[in-house]
Design goal:
By secondary structure, the chain is an alpha+beta fold. Strands 5-4-3-6-2-1-7-8 form an eight-stranded mixed β-sheet. Helix 2 runs antiparallel to helix 4. It is elongated. The termini are far apart. 37% of the residues are buried.
Amino acid sequence: MAQHIVSLIANAGIFQGLAKQNMLFHQCISELVDNSIAAKDKNRKFKIQIIFENINNDFSYVYIVDDCAGMTLNVFEKALQLGESATTDCRLNEHGFGLKNSLATLSSSNGDWKIWTRDKNLNKVLSVTGPFNSQMFIEDNDQFPNSDILPTPDDISTLIKVKVKKSFIQTLQGRGAPTTDLERLREWLIEHLGVMYRGYLEQDDESYDNEGVIIVSIGNDTLQVPPIQVPFGNKNVEYMDIEIGGETYNLKYYHGTLDEVRRNSLVRGQPTKYYYQGNIPTQGIDIRLGKRVIAVKQLETIWKTDDNNRISQLSRHNDFNDFVGELVIPNLPRGILTTVNNKTDFNLDDMEWQKIFNRLNDFRPKRNIRTKTEAVLKNKWMGMLKATNPEEQISDEISVWPTGVRIDVYRKTLNNDIIIYELKVGTASPIHIYQLKMYWDGLVLNGEQPREAILLVEDFHTNIEEMINKMNTITPPNKSKPYNFKIEKQKNKGL
């Protein structure tokens, strides 16, 4: 019996297939940003720019520019090779598919693209032009393009240019009618990048500095990407020592309640539109490996239920809408806790992930966490008041208005002064002040005169203080004494 050798060739068809993995626009961009960060000079910050140049209603040029280390001819050749990583020491170059995946997808599988990079060893600019095929040709004496919308050639290390359909850029959007307005599409991209790269963009706990900046531009109109944190209202942390890859690492699991007020100013003062929406699709936790967020909105993949001895995945439910969290894993050596080839999710065939998920099952998400957390806060505050004022009337059973609206905490001192409290998880919002007003007015209509109404929150902005000051000038019903609304932070009360 004869054996026949088959030489496998990566031809144009292979790369056309790569473009059909359902990657979204921001996922393609993140693969290219990963490559830039992996090439970062250790002694200086990175600067990465994503630039849109409008062509027409159907297409836009997209540029990804960095001032990192560039690529030598040898590294450039490896970067173009399917399944081979440009570097071997950085997790961000984990699989050797990212560049190829991204460019094939961005260019609609067989469209044109071009890469320029500075070879500091040869002191030359190398370039290669797509689409991908079984043979690629690197030009070793090119020049960076000189354009008003690009940095000066001296400030560029690597530049990628690709023509992208706007219909594909629209995959940035999580909801709403598709738009071709690049300014609106930029808002979505900034949000995605701010979540994925917050570990690089935020201030480091040890160095007290960030690692670089990412800028998204439309022509010369530039906006910097902010680090977008999980908007916790109430937050708890669990520390877990887990053996991974033969070594023990300390993982941090933060979990708590969604703070809608904080969420509504996360993206350069504007609300998030894709993440942390307080609904079924966005509930769950983020997973951060090193400084890169690799997965978001994780719930049923992690937590299991045991119903009549049948183990099944925890189902998404409106009861979890206020639940948010983040698992922070230290930066691990390459090959440990692997992700799928396009880094859009973790690799479930890697059993090290299951070790982590088994530990997370000790900290199950709470249903209706906001209500339960506020109930805990209320009970703790009542306990503190009763301990220091045992002879006063302190109750959470006092109701006002015909609908029976119950005041969080009602306190009547020995001098018959009435003080009412409203306790809220997270940051104060105007609706909370109106709840106090509703309690106050209800008591007045019942013939009782409050002395103070205090809102106890985790945090508040100055505009809430201004609102309270104006509310205190409004005339209450039934010619009662003036309103006396106040706001205080829970930590100042020992909560």
